[in-house]
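During the second year of the project, the team shifted from modelling isolated chains to modelling whole assemblies. The rationale, set out in the original proposal, was that interfaces cannot be judged from single-chain predictions alone. As a representative example for this report, we include one of the complexes processed in the last quarter. Its constituent sequences, exactly as entered into the pipeline, are reproduced here:
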Amino acid sequence: MTSWKLIQKAKGILEKERGAVQKPWGGKITVCLLYPNAYHVGMSNLGFQILYRILNAADDVVCERAFLPEPEDLQEYRNTQTPLFSLESQKLLSSFDILAFSISFENDFLNVLTLLELAHIPPESCLRDGRYPLVIAGGVAVFLNPEPVSEFFDLFVLGEAEEVIGQFLAAVRQTLSDKKKKEKDDLLRTLGGLEGIYVPKFYRVTYAEDGKIEAMDPEPGFPRKVKRRWVSKLDQFPTQSVLFTPDTEFKEMALVEVNRGCPRGCRFCAACFVYHPFRNRSLSSLESISKEALLNEHRIGLTGTAVSDHPKLLPLCQTILSQRGGISLSSLRVDAVTPSLIQCLREGEDRTVAIAPEAGSERLRKMLKKGYSEEEILKSINILVENGLSQIKCYFLIGLPSETDEDAKEILLLAKRIRHQILSSQKSRERRWRLVLSVNPFIPKPATPFQWAPLEEIGSLKRKLKMIQRGVQGERGMEIIHDLPKWAYVQALLSRGDRRVGKILMATQRSQGNWSQALRETSINADFYVHRKRDLDEVFPWDFIDHGISKEQLKEEYLGAMKEAGVEI
Ligand code: SF4
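Output from the structure prediction step:
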């Protein structure tokens, strides 16, 4: 049975969109692109939109979309037993050739299971034969470490999709036509032979008695290390929003990607290491993408790992302004804040600017390799405010390796000095200002120098957070936002776990999202993954991925950081 109410809702969403592609199915490879979170979140994701465009650009491919239903729709799906269907044609997900998940955040792993359940498709790959769609995943969360969800996917695309997708589709074309005659195994063997494709079932993991990984061995014919793919010339793949709707975080704004990777190498930053090497689009290419984007929306959101490291950022902003476009930047490096750039942003009607000191004390900023002095931070605030931008957001991390309560207090002290700087730099006392502190737990991510470090104990994170919250209370114009430490725990588990963590995900799905119950039910010790400091020579679940930077280099960085922090290894 299919709920008429849900069909009407899908049609209503489509009516409000611009850019959706509807193609006849006959004889084409059918792909449903899934974002494992709500529509307004998925539609704000540029990577998701780009995949949609690339797949639909192939004449023999139909690509449609599906998202995690809103809570009231989820209930309707379950009450009416309606199998999940796609947005564009409202066809059942089980009728597609391929279900392709784009996963940016580990905390969305659980939603993958919800979506498969709604689609009436068995979650475990080993229970799906050739009659089911091929279930695949890509996105930064899985190319950091796909192992916690390896049981659920037939294969993963590791790296930047633009680089792999052509070869992937060619291999699918060759094999899919006689899929019914072939075993799913044959298809996976062909696809698993492509660089950047990881098929978990062809890799065997063995564990030592203490629970650590002993080895991960591929079947003959598959590589021991799977290469993360990356695009060497970004200009070949213009990246801008292709779908527009008022129901997204970035409404009335077209996103344009400026660069990937970052030359700075801050030791905690996963985006820097997994998008290595640093690559910029050329000014001429960005100018032409922006010109095209302004035909769709009057405002451009410049995105990328390190937007303010683009050497031509100022001329690009000036060009956008000369075309009467608005400008928005996700965040600015402290030492990139210059009067001319800020004036440009102000003219482009950017209201809020974010900077990321990350730590309150200079000692910790140095350890992170984000060694700005307090003077430099306050100078950037002065430039922002003097040039008319008084809505400022500052990102901080708590629970960094070697962090003491004194270091956490320094966040509060620095925030108060920033507030003081805003007030003294303001030309008029009447102007409205706002200082938002975004304070979040530090999660040691795979493929970064801190991959050996543990997540700080939840009690300690809560205490530090409380202390900062209390210090901000009653301070006019200042507010604090933060993630709950319990979600940092879940994120650490899902980003640092191995294959066995899939059992916890299954149990959590069975208990309808109750993590505590699931952790009690399974005999797996989650603290083993979250709070344990890893041995220097330990085999990590993600070691089989060649992320482009050797483990030795990361180790050197880690040891350097610990030495600077005065921590013995
Ligand atoms: S934190 Fe920012 S500056 Fe540092 S490496 Fe990451 S993107 Fe670059």
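The first strand starts at residue 29 and ends at 35. Residues 225 and 544 are 5 Å apart (CA to CA).
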